[in-house]
Amino acid sequence: SPAPVLAGTRVLVTAGPTREPLDPVRYLSNRSSGKMGYAIAEAAAQAGADTVLVSGPTSLPCPTGVRRINVMTAAEMYQTVMQLKEETDILIKAAAVADYQPTQVAQSKLKKSGDTMTITLERTPDIAQEVGSNKGSLFLVGFAAETDDLEEHARLKLKKKNLDLVVGNNVTEPGAGFDGDTNIVTVWDAAGEVLRLPRLSKAEVAQRLVTLIGERFHGRN
Ligand code: PMT
After folding, report:
1. What are the DNA/pantothenate metabolism flavoprotein C-terminal domain coordinates in residue numbering (predicted)?
2. Is residue 50 part of a domain?
3. In the predicted model, is pLDDT for residue 8 greater than 80?
4. Mutate which of 32, 77, 164, 213 to test ligand 1's pocket (most atoms within 8 Å of Cβ)?
5. Domain range holding 170?
6. Between β-strands 200-201 and 182-183, what pairing exists: parallel, antiparallel or unpaired?
7. What is the pLDDT of residue 221?
8. What is the average per-residue pLDDT within 49-53?
9. With bands split at pLDDT 50, 70 and 90, how would you rate the model's confidence at 220?
């Protein structure tokens, strides 16, 4: 039988949400469960890759054969990915990273006072963009979670973040996106559409993506 598609490669997958604390008991986050990224890590390991999963907070067990590093905030995910990128061949960014974090984290629980309250946020580092701006031989795959104009927004992200592939999911479509066990994805490279999949389990989507990524990675090397 042929060698597994990712044998001999080092794959880093990010998954799950990030949590940006406001005070000791509250945070800002999003609906990512981690299922898509965990399925990709599992499929990569099964395809023979030495696989590391950098995970935001989820309730999922670590897939067999995968080394997991837990992080909480976008800043922690950024630091961890930056440390590991030199020893990575393929980086797959399925995490839903917060774009903004509170400018200040209160040391004690915030108290109720007025009828309204204002929280000031500042941008978090864009991990994919930072890696993409200086990626060397790294093969970089990003996701785009969109609610409208999927192709346009996904292809803009591909270009802006210097991705090799972008995996787009319209998160308003039934059976796609956050938290469920299925997803509906389309993949683009700089030249155009590469793969369009129907609604499939996240495990099946992950296997198809891993096959495509393996072909592209080896085709290039
Ligand atoms: O976890 P599940 O419940 O299974 O849901 C799966 C998913 C919907 C979260 C997943 O399929 C998905 O689309 N993940 C990316 C979500 C997202 O944050 O997309 P984005 O369009 O905001 O970001 C684009 C890309 O840049 C992503 O690869 C993201 O990881 C990356 N990014 C974004 C912001 C940031 N500060 N740093 C980043 O690296």
Report:
1. 6-213
2. yes
3. yes
4. 32
5. 10-100+120-220
6. antiparallel
7. 58
8. 98
9. confident
